[in-house]
Amino acid sequence: MELGWGATKGAFRRKEGNGDYRRQRDVVDRVTAHPAWRRSGGRDHVFVLTDPMVMWHVRAEIAPAILLVVDFGGWYKLDSKSAGGNSSHMIQHTQVSLLKDVIVPYTHLLPTLHLSENMDRPTLLYFKGAKHRHRGGLVREKLWDLMLNEPDVVMEEGFPNATGREQSIKGMRTSEFCLHPAGDTPSSCRLFDAVASLCIPVIVSDDIELPFEGMIDYTEFSIFVSVGNAMRPKWLTDYLRNISKQQKDEFRRNLAGVQHIFEYENSHESSKVSAPEDGAVNHIWKKTHQKLSMIQEAVTREKRKPEGASIPLRCHCTWPPLLVVNPSRKAQMTASQLISPLVVANMSM
Asked: Which part of the chain is the Exostosin GT47 domain (predicted)?
């Protein structure tokens, strides 16, 4: 995908004379012409998409398949400035879904620090990255201004070049917590750099999607903070300072226990194994395998659909909002509040 910066910014949306469009069109034409695609309507196919905007021109056509993506942010969000407020430029909610798709980890850019190598961490909170972002990343700019003059907090402007990498290694390895606010999309490789560095992630987001949920519990090694609380002056630093050393040590032990899950390759040069036995690749396929029963049911439903029948695309792509019950009020919930129909993109479920 050539997004087209500078003078050609936004050109990727055009089809005429667009190499991206031609390549995407060629891929889809070749795949959909195959008997395997026709057998299932693409529902038993898997697309590995390394960026939320990859295959943008043919997004509706690959929607029946399982999409392996690092983030739904680029699919859901509409940049009103660049899109001119045109909703046709937005990836529709009938095309991506936690029910059929799989969130995969970014590849971390920093080397893995093992628990036995952990040293003193004099810095409370660390962040390195670009201050100015779009869409949900506007929160980052506000957080930056709030945190800039806080003691024991380091906010560094930087980019993933050689110098920035060395600074990030030092900064993450000498900090108790690593800040993870949204960028242009809710997640980034920074989260997995923090895990590799045994720096407890502080995730500031109300809607982030994470890899392998249900297989691992992120609350055992990460701090989750709502945007509203993070925007309150001194709230975040006061909260982090009140976390005990015992709790931080436990978080760090748990971080060490999940590092291998986010590894695509074995980082030990002496090892002859190309990837961890229970690393990212196997976890991705385990998560994909969980979709199998839904795929089989969707294919069966498609076969019995009468010719000429029109079934609208429907998809609840995010779970219903959680209802927090205050035990002291003994709140009661009706069945309609607890149960919500689950439907999958292009699966008629």
From this structure: 19-239
Helix, strand, or coil (residue 19): helix
State the residue for tokens 């919500």.
Answer: 340
Q: What's the 3-state SS for 96-152?
A: CCCCCCEECCCCCCCCCCCHHHCCCCCEEEEEEECCCCCHHHHHHHHHHHHHCCCCC
Give span(s): CATH 3.40.50.2000, the chain.
115-262
At 21-52, the pLDDT tens digits run: 899 999 999 999 999 999 888 998 999 987 76
Per DSSP, the residues of 164-225 read HHHHHHHHHHTEEEEEEE--SSS--THHHHHHHTTPEEEEE-SS---TTBTTB-GGGT-EEE
Report the amino acid identity of residue 67: L
Q: What is the pLDDT of residue 163?
A: 77
Contacts of 310 (CB under 8 A, 6+ apart): none
212, 125 contact by CB (below 8 A): no
Give per-residue pLDDT as tens, 65-112.
999 998 876 665 444 344 444 444 555 556 778 888 999 999 999 999
**pLDDT value, residue 187:** 82
As beta bridge partners, residue 129 has 157
